[in-house]
Amino acid sequence: MKLDELNIGIVGLGYVGLPLAVEFGKKYQTLGFDINEARVQELESGKDSTLECSPEELASAPHLQYTHQLRDLLVCNFYVVTVPTPITEENTPDLTPLKKASEALAQVIRKGDIVVFESTVYPGATEEVCLPIIEKMSGLIFNQDFFAGYSPERINPGDKVNRLTTITKITSGSTDAVADFVDAVYASIVTAGTHKASSIKVAEAAKVIENTQRDLNIAIINEFAKIFNRLDIDTEEVLKAAGTKWNFLPFKPGLVGGHCISVDPYYLTHKAQEVGYRPEVILAGRRINDGMGEYVATQLVKKLSSKKIHIDEAKVLILGFTFKGDCPDVRNTKIINIVKELQDYNMSVDVHDSWASKDEVRHEYGIELIDELNEGSYDAIVLAVDHSETKAMGVEALRRLGKENHILYDVKHVLSLGEADIRL
């Protein structure tokens, strides 16, 4: 196969798949496939609800088409799988979307075709789980009739600076020749260049430790915050002081949610335990970060009590519900942990977030987002997500939302030191 013979099929049109489809669609015949017909119709109308691609960007890919019909992929010869890889309630890998995608590909893949996986997995998953499914259901022999690669996604939802084309792309292939070809395919659209790993497993491992490392860095900062709160020291001031050293890493405390950082470590720990090693540091970091929602709620309750505000039936406003600022993604948001914990104290909790989809939040979390922010209504206001509009409100406007006696909790360090009653 040569580059000018490429007919690319993208399986999954979410935060990862769509930007990839758009970039490939600028140069190659590209078909974006998603089982969600409404998603396909949305994209065909020139809109992207994830906000990863603007209408102008969608229109910049003349060779890109969309479909929800699997049979349409029969024209493709180079497939890229970008489906989500979540975890179960027991914090174990849920490979269901990946398995279903493999089953679907088995129905359309033909001799000579290449399939590249981008979904985050543990080392070995591509060759141990996905490819055997394709091989068994298609009747084709892996590395003889069809070939594979792995090129981990590095999309940062909401980031308009670090984009697909400006982030070095890790590539790999099931044979040396396929590895070279997969690398060339990505190099043709990624201006930042590529890094060709020696094997699929190395590429898988590289991806899963990227977010695990970040998770652990945030975990230690969260632990610092817990200690400094007990010592009555402002965490941000400490971090700024420590940050004057050239090699101090600039992480901040906070809630760790989303589809990557709070999920990927569990893929690595699962595989580690499968081969007889029990990870300690990684799981310790996960416990700290998973408990931050409860910690925030407890801190708020203590502060309310100190100001003689009745906990029972107190009215609280949570500003922000997405997992990060200026992004509509509510997958695995840890704000829900704050909400549930406060509700357990019999508090009345309102949640406002203009970035989040009301329908999605209702469906996934059973919460009705409010539209109106009424002044003088709340015993506590929690700045949970650092959306631009929240930052722009300023402390006076935020204070006006509270009753005469209220608490303003700045979880994301949106305000300057001294403006909030409590900061994480």
Which features would summarize this protein structure in a list?
six-stranded parallel sheet; 14 helices
Give an overview of the whole structure.
It contains 14 helices and 13 strands. The chain is of the alpha/beta class and 424 residues long. A 6-stranded parallel beta sheet has the order 3-2-1-4-5-6, sandwiched between helices. Strands 10-9-11-12-13 form a 5-stranded parallel beta sheet, with helices on both faces. β4, α4 and β5 form a beta-alpha-beta unit. α11 crosses α12 (335-344). It is elongated, with a radius of gyration of 23 Å. It starts with 6 loop residues before the first strand and ends with a strand. The mean pLDDT is 94.
Write the layout of secondary structure elements.
Layout: E1 7-11, H1 17-25, E2 29-33, H2 37-44, H3 55-59, E3 64-67, E4 78-81, H4 96-106, E5 114-117, H5 125-138, E6 147-150, E7 169-171, H6 176-187, E8 194-196, H7 200-230, H8 235-242, H9 264-274, H10 281-290, H11 292-306, E9 315-319, H12 335-344, E10 348-352, H13 358-365, E11 378-383, H14 388-400, E12 402-410, E13 422-423
Parallel strand pairs: 1-2, 1-4, 2-3, 4-5, 5-6, 7-8, 9-10, 9-11, 11-12, 12-13
Short description:
With 424 residues, the protein is α/β, with parallel strands linked by helices.
Question: What best-fitting shape do the alpha-carbon axes yield?
Answer: elongated
- Which stretches are low in confidence, meaning pLDDT under 50 for 5 or more residues running? none
Largest sheet: 6 strands, parallel
- Helix fraction? 25-40%
Q: Round the mean pLDDT to the nearest integer and report it.
A: 94
Order of helices and strands: EHEHHEEHEHEEHEHHHHHEHEHEHEE
Classify the beta-strand content into a percent band: 5-15%
Count of DSSP-assigned helices? 14
Please tally the β strands and state the result. 13
Q: Cα-atom Rg, whole angstroms?
A: 23 Å
Strand line-up in the sheet with most strands:
3-2-1-4-5-6
